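Anyone else keep sequences and structure tokens together like this?

Example one:
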Amino acid sequence: MELKGKRIAVLAEDLYEDIELWYPMMRMREAGAEVSVLGAGKGKSGYKGKHGLPISTDGSTDEASADDYDAVIIPGGYSPDRMRRHSSLIEFVKTLHDRGAVVAWICHGGWVPVSAGVVEGRKVTSFFSIRDDMENAGATWLDEEVVRDGNLVSSRYPDDLPAFCRTIIDALAESD
């Protein structure tokens, strides 16, 4: 149980890429972490994925304190475009980043750290269609299955999930 005692927030909003939320959530739990699913909007207790898979939340970023978490995982799909419309969610991610916690995203999830202003001068990856967004925000974009730059961990798409999860676990294990 390499992540025993670690707390991880997985962010949710409608139209998340189902496997990009569920796979990391289950893998982090399997590794011993306490995982909370946090929604973007206050008062909403559930969201549906792009392929219809529902998820219930444990709370929202309006109510949660970033100080209670060691990492945040941001799935892709269409949800990141919706997530970045919520100032509390953006502030949650920025606060985690600023204190050195792991900020991890896959696919279009990169839009959230761009909006949080945390990618400038960093090496990252994402789904290729948001490469321009990443570079325009000051990041160096790499076409690799997983890129880790300090506390930032990023991947491109579902095929990269095994490497993405291994790298998150490694980053959290090193943070002890």
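And example two:
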Amino acid sequence: MDIDSSAPEHSSGAIAGMTVPQARELIGAHIIQVKLNEKQCAALEAEAAKWRGRAELARSKNAADLQAEAERLAAAAETKLAALKAETAELAADIKRLFRQLPALAARERSVDPDLLLQELLISAGMNPGEEALLGVERKFAALEKDAAAGAELAALKAKLAGGGNGA
């Protein structure tokens, strides 16, 4: 069934690709539409009852033309009522389906943005955003310098041991 044009266009019940606030807004719009439909249903029920009563009055007064018109109007109101009830039931089913999908949508949303967190950590470390590539280079050079220093110390120790063992 087609829902009111003021309702959001996502009426299929699927909320994939939406944010939690968007999904909640869609659910809210559906609930509002259900409430409006319920009020319209009550008005249509009253209108159908009014025309059925008038048809009965016309029948009792032997006014066949008025009776036929009243019955036609009562039937038209009942047809609108049936369509509106079907739409309302579809919207209610959509609401239930959307509520069931909401926790999964919330779970898929990141509660912490790792990219933003990295940028904040870089800024805290005194680096500008975009300098994270330098971190990797800095680490590699630090490792190379550490290995070179350790290698030099090892060579000096070996030379000392080699020189100290011949002299003793």
